[in-house]
Amino acid sequence: MNPGQGQAAQPTTVEPDRLDPERRARVALTRLIEPGDATVGRCVAKLGAAHLVEAIRRDAVPEGLGLEGERLAVYRERLTAVDPEAEVERARTQGGRFVIPGDPEWPSQLDDLGDGRPVGLWVRGVGSLRLLALRSVAVVGARACTPYGAYVASELSSQLAERGWVVVSGAAYGIDAAAHRGALAVGGTTVGVLACGVDVTYPPGNAGLIGRIAQQGILLSELPPGSHPNRFRFVLRNRVIAALTRGTVVVEAALRSGALSTARRARDLNRHTMGVAGPVTSELSAGVHALIRGGATLVTDAAEVGELIGSIGDDLAPRRSGPVLPRDLLEPAVARVLEAVPASADGAPVERIGRHAGLLADTTLQHLYELGALGFVERHGAHWRLVRRR
């Protein structure tokens, strides 16, 4: 990743020597627990992360919280080897940061996971995760996909990106990789939710793709730097994909596919679930067809996806009275990008807007997606133009 690009667009990070107690404790918890630990989530809600970690350290966790015995002993032993400042510094050297609930970049829709929500997220890449997630859709499916599935996932994701949607997937082989590549191919942005540390390249065969996602989008994980994936962690990360996005599209999946677990979690979280039909003779279509029979919506292109999950536009922009306008609240660099978008119906490509704003193309692209999420601009083919107010 180009460090200069990351620093130009990402939110301000917390320097290691200035970690507040809550952030420090949440960093430590990512080393102690596995993602989605509801027992620890309830403890954090009741005690706060800082008090919980100190209670674990002193073997003084209150009774009745479900955190006791061998489990508590294991956490206490792990805690002796944790250095939160070093963890944050390690992430920073890789262009990463640590985001917790309450931060401006925290996507509040993850709170729908209740006690199982992440204690924090390790994030690598450019742009604001919260703003990019506002207008995002998950595209998932089988790792051992067919050429048909890879083509559909790529085309669908390209179309979604051209309509200003952020494509979210898991950076795995098969449908995930095709979805990410489809969005990147048309200059769109994409988010990869990992089952390992954001500094770990997995699967190795997707090293180039993962690097491009970090440059043109965001990689995120609940697991701290250096963590490696296992089967259990893949299943757990699916709930983050489901909660982060406005809807989940399954392109290809067998009856026991992990992609179906993402769709089920999306349904349980009252998100839209969608499926792309395939040949009835294909095993990799059986899971999707069962999902559709169970209530998911059949979709065939990005227009149908957009029609279902809707436009966020003005409805999510802050409404204020008095002389303060929404555009007055934009960060200076974002405001420069907005000023550089021409008022013509044709708009302009990213490179031209970047030249007028005095910013790199990748940085300009991230700010355009943020402005799109706030309803100021929209993508029209390869160009970006101002949203016309009615």
Write up what this structure looks like:
The protein folds into three domains: 3-125, no CATH class; 135-195 and 230-309, Rossmann fold (3-Layer(aba) Sandwich), CATH 3.40.50; 313-386, Winged helix-like DNA-binding domain superfamily/Winged helix DNA-binding domain (Arc Repressor Mutant, subunit A), CATH 1.10.10. It has helices at 3-9, 21-32, 38-47, 49-57, 69-79, 84-93, 129-134, 147-162, 175-185, 207-216, 231-244, 258-268, 283-293, 302-309, 332-340, 350-357, 361-373, and strands at 96-99, 121-125, 136-140, 166-169, 190-193, 218-221, 247-250, 272-275, 297-298, 348-349, 377-380, 383-386. It has 390 residues and is an alpha/beta fold. It starts with a helix and ends with a strand. β8, α13 and β9 (297-298) form a beta-alpha-beta unit. It is built from 17 helices and twelve strands. The strands form two sheets. A nine-stranded mixed β-sheet has the order 1-2-6-5-4-3-7-8-9, with helices on both faces. α2 (21-32) packs across α4 (49-57) and α2 crosses α5 (69-79).
Structure described in brief:
Residues 98-307 form the Smf/DprA SLOG domain. By secondary structure, this protein is α/β, with parallel strands linked by helices. The chain has 17 helices and twelve strands.
List descriptors.
390 residues; alpha/beta; Rossmann fold; 9-stranded mixed beta sheet; 17 helices; DprA
Q: So how many helices?
A: 17
Order of helices and strands: HHHHHHEEHEHEHEHEHEHEHEHHEHHEE
Mean pLDDT: 89
Top CATH class of the largest domain: Alpha Beta
Main sheet attributes: strand count, strand direction, barrel closure: 9 strands, mixed
State the helical fraction.
40-55%
Number of strands: 12
Number of domains: 3
Q: How many whole angstroms does the radius of gyration measure?
A: 21 Å
**Structural class estimated from helices and strands:** alpha/beta
Low-confidence stretches: 1-17, 312-324
N-C termini distance: 41 Å
Pfam families: DNA_processg_A (PF02481)
InterPro entries: DprA, DrpA_SLOG
Biased composition (Polar residues): 1-13
Family: Belongs to the DprA/Smf family.
